Amino acid sequence: MNLLSLLQAGMTESAINPVKDFLSSLMDSVGQWVPSIIGALFALIIGLWIIGMIMKAIKKAFNKADIDSSLKPFLITLISFGLKLLLFISIAQIIGIPMASFAVLLGGIGVAIGAAFNGSLGHLASGIMILLFKPFKVGDLIESDGELGFVKEISVFVTVLETFQNKTSIIPNNTIMSNKIINYSVKGNLRVDMPFGIRYEGDIKKAKEIVMDVLKNDSNVLQNPAPRVAVNNLGENGVELLALPYSTPDDYWDVYWDTRQKIVEALGAAGYEAPLPQRVVTMKNS
User: Fold this and answer.
1) Is the pTM of this model over 0.85?
2) Which domain, by its residues, includes 164?
């Protein structure tokens, strides 16, 4: 019995010892890591607060400096990302992660993110191309991907347009660069083509004078380049004239709608009628 009891006690002790060693090792590790983790969390909170203050200062400096408004959102995003990356590297060192291991981990994460956001990287590259080649800038009136509007922001991945219907259109940069871009603001003015017609028996010279008088007295119509009125076509029912005023991009629709109405009213007041469809019928007596 004594021998059996000794064997049982020895087996019990041999089974418990590894558990004791594991728990002891675990407690030692926790004791070593807890201060580092607490310090890392404290550094993270303080670091993010400092980065927020730095970014506010940078934004104020950008607003005061003569920096292209198209570059501001892009640079702010880039600087913020760089500062946060440096912060996370510093926190990794506080925790005790070796830089070699951290670099391998960062590389793996980068590959994974690159695979997951392959399209987004294309938008990023397109955003850089937009800022480098400047096919348009903030404030320009552009048309792309079927959208017409003023450029409000060029960010890392998207371009924001405000349409004439007061809608906000967000277009991926890659979509813009892969489509045709029409920039209406490069020249600083736009020609508004407005066709109108008079009957064949109407006085063409007088009609042109009436329309020119409207264009010269309209505050939204630019006088340089000078507006013009020309005969555009001899239609089936009348003479088609074409008013060719110029306007700024901001006043384009005011000229398109309001000036057109003024022309119609002025011609109507002068006795001109619209060239409605008409037929000449010849009767022959048998």
Assistant:
1) no
2) 135-183
